[in-house]
């Protein structure tokens, strides 16, 4: 089944290899003109403009979706701006977050310089040719992809050429270091990776205790200037606190825009990490307290066992998150750790492998 689907796709690609270049050329210019026209139209929109439910736009450089006749604006992550872009492989445009330079380069690559359809003689003929060839190109790509005709990249079932990580084809063994193992490789961004582990359910937003396979991409990776970091202010390391009395854990945190948390039962690991306009990950933190034999124990802990756990879902107040441990803790030795995460509960992801800990951990005694 899997094999025959692969053959069908490669045959479709092979069959379309010749004529597809011609078709592409015929709609490319129109896509560029359409993108220019849309970006011009977006300039005239305000957050108060009326709209049709389902309509997408860009307003004040933000991504705008029409809900109940009113635009709802969403800031693009990572300092990006919202723009209409010409599609590359089929007729149409997409509205997405990108840089101004990428928008301009993509439009320039189509040859379009303005929104007009009648800028030069001969355009009318070529655009009607485009119209007829467009539908067959769209139909062909729809068949190859097994559906997903939408021009919106966030609804299409077709992988965009522009997001393919060609580096994933390299298993890394061209530059071996001792003991290094080859990476898994993919030429399609591992989009169907979970099909290689058919014994596992798709994570599907659930916390599946027996394990699962998650198809969501990792998303926006925070820059080294934006790596989250936290430090407990109470209890501090080696603190001694009285038994069975309320105490409040306080943790200073930076470079995490706190207050973003999704439904942990329905959206666990279910969306990519995103960052705010300053580049800080939008997420939340957690604290977990585990009882240990002694503060200097060398016994490895069991992550299924803890005495206190709390998601810190509120926004930090003056850079500090806090939570009260009602009733306190019985006498003993404890380890307190932070778990700093993106909104969908996945661990914070940052630009480089070598960095200081993104979390804090302290040891304290209750007596
Ligand atoms: C949008 O409407 C609100 C409330 O009616 C008004 O205060 C605001 O100035 C309007 N903004 C624009 C950009 O028109
Ligand atoms: C102890 O903590 C609990 C839970 O946060 C709270 O309801 C209670 O009021 C606290 N008691 C005191 C004396 O602060």
UniProtKB/TrEMBL annotation:
Among InterPro entries, the record links this protein to: Appressorial_penetr-assoc
Signal peptide residue numbers: 1-17
Keyword set, alphabetical order: Signal
Taxonomy, superkingdom: Eukaryota
> Is the keyword Signal assigned to this protein?
yes
Name of the protein in its database record: Carbohydrate-binding module family 19 domain-containing protein
